[in-house]
Amino acid sequence: MKRKLFLVAPTTLLFMLIVMMGVEPQNSNATKITNSTQVVSAEPNSPLVPVGSGFTYQGHLLDNGNPANGQYDFVFTLFDALSGGNQVGTVTLTSQTVSDGLYTATLDFGAGTFQGEARWLQISVRRVGAPSYTTLSPRVALTATPYALSLQPGAVISGTTPYITLNVFNNTASDVPTIYASAIGGTAVYAFSSNRIGVYAISPNSVGVYANGGYAAVQAISGGGYGVSANSNSSVGVYSESQGSNGVFGVSRCGDDANRCIGVHGTDATGGGSHGVFGSALAFGIGVGGGNLDTTNGWAGFFTGRVRITGGCCNGPQLTTQVDHPQDPANKYLNHYSVQSSESLDFYRGHAILDAQGEAWVNLPDWFESLNEDFEYQLTAIGGPGRDLYIAQEIKDSRFQIAGGKAGMKVSWQITATRKNSDTSRSHLPVEQDKPERERGYYLQPELYGQPDSKLLISGPVDPTLNFPATPEVGK
User: Which helix (H) or strand (E) holds 368?
Assistant: First the structure.
């Protein structure tokens, strides 16, 4: 007698298909098979238990028109089409118990098998010990359970409660990302919050958020709060690296006289000597750079408070000082140029009153000769001629003597000295200096030599025009 095997359905199962094997059955109802799949998950109170990628498949098997009983071998083959197509994976289960036609199989085709594409399951079955399998037809279309639909491409996870809408944990100690997203031409991760945080990430020992993008690794836009807010208890709050462009690029589009917004803002909140903003560079690079194309009204750098510079400092051709105008401080500035020289010089001045012999000793600070050398003197009589004034004793033991004047005469003196401390000798600039190879053809002030702005020297041949990235539309 020829054996017939069929799968029929219990009424509670979610997946429906029509499969048969062997000779066409007499009763068409015997060929209607309804099977169920469900994703194996941890108990609700045990969120730290890993779920895995397997799922449960249930069915009802008829053997020669009767509910099957005994041991059967199954081959479950996954395809990407109803017929033909490509084989995606195979699971073979032997000696499976079938009781009163019911069987349950746990299938695991691997974590990367179900990523939103349609899948069809082909089932082959035989009694244990039978020479060959019988393939049931047609293949079973695997459809998602209702909540699994929220994880397919293009799906939306929405919540209206005050709780977390999506919470993902990775409890291993490895560097494997908890969430990994990639995109060929669009945005890998897009997050929007109307009044709170778009993306919030915590990593106690490693990177909270890691981004690598061809256009912008991380782009943050905020309507009223912070674009990017980062906090670290023991290491770097925000770390950014670029192999071909800016590691961090900040743009502020709301600046005016009333609201002076900031592209990049740093604060030392401890008051213990930390840095609000710190920059460093290797070799020829610039640790911290600033630029402003409006050379009349704008500022490349603005500092409130003391500023310390160690090492050499190269100034532009117009070193100036600006203060509020003492006669109209609310409406005017007072500008002064600084004295410059090809040497490293110090200037000291003072007044002396000559004694009865027309002489005076001028005492200088104890450190004077430790800091200076090669002294030059200038004397000016006040209140009358002083043609015979002269330096009777040059600087020695931190003092010098004036002589040749009249008793009681007031004398103005000035000393010009060459700085000799070790810091100056280390950072001394030659009067004439060849430009490094990469700076040649570029200028500190190209307009003085009839050159275009593109010839402005900014750490080598760089176009000074700031190309701000466009603000993307919401949802793009």
Answer: helix 368-371
